[in-house]
Amino acid sequence: MYARGLRRRKAMFGEADVEQRMAAAGEFGAPLQNIINAYVYGDVWERSGLSGDIRSLVMLGITAASGKPAEFRVHAKGALANGCTKEQVQDVLLLVAMYCGVPAAIETNRIAAEIFGEASASDPAA
């Protein structure tokens, strides 16, 4: 499962990003990285019930609704790799705004606009 998960993770986020995250975790965080590779990406992401793009959209909703902008950024990049469209991401964030409150969607809207190339990270209008 570990090798399969590592392949999927690198396909979604890029080899350099995954290697950097694993290295940054250090010796202390290595067991967690191993679990992420084996079980998150090697097992749950490999299940056949949902396609990769749908899983990505679910992750965007979860990370936006739970106030995890750093993880939202990671998964927004993965969503692009999994074929999600700008319109799909916009719709997810509108659902988050309606069901979890507008503040939950504001920062993630900025991040999504940046990732889709519509605004820079320093653009206050994003």
Task: Give a verbal description of the structure.
- It is a single chain.
- The chain is an all-alpha fold.
- It has two domains: 1-47, no CATH class; 50-126, AhpD-like (Up-down Bundle).
- The protein is 75% helix and 0% strand.
- The chain has helices at 2-13, 15-41, 52-65, 69-81, 86-100, 102-115.
- Helix 3 (52-65) runs parallel beside helix 5.
- The longest helix is centred in the N-terminal third of the chain and has 27 residues, at 15-41.
- It is globular, with a radius of gyration of 15 Å.
- The model is unreliable at 119-126 (pLDDT under 50).
Query: How many domains make up the coordinates?
Result: 2
The first-level CATH class of the largest domain is given as: Mainly Alpha
Low confidence ranges: 119-126
> How many extended strands?
0
What is the oligomeric state here? single chain
Task: Return the string of H and E elements.
Answer: HHHHHH
Considering the protein shown, what is the CATH homologous superfamily of the largest domain? Answer: AhpD-like
Let me know the average pLDDT: 93
Distance between the termini: 39 Å
The DSSP helix count reads 6
Strand residue content: under 5%
Assigned CATH architecture of the largest domain: Up-down Bundle
What composes the largest sheet? none
SS content category: mainly alpha
- Helix percent band: over 70%
Using the CA coordinates, give the radius of gyration: 15 Å
CATH topology of the largest domain: AhpD-like
Question: Tell me, what's the shape?
Answer: globular
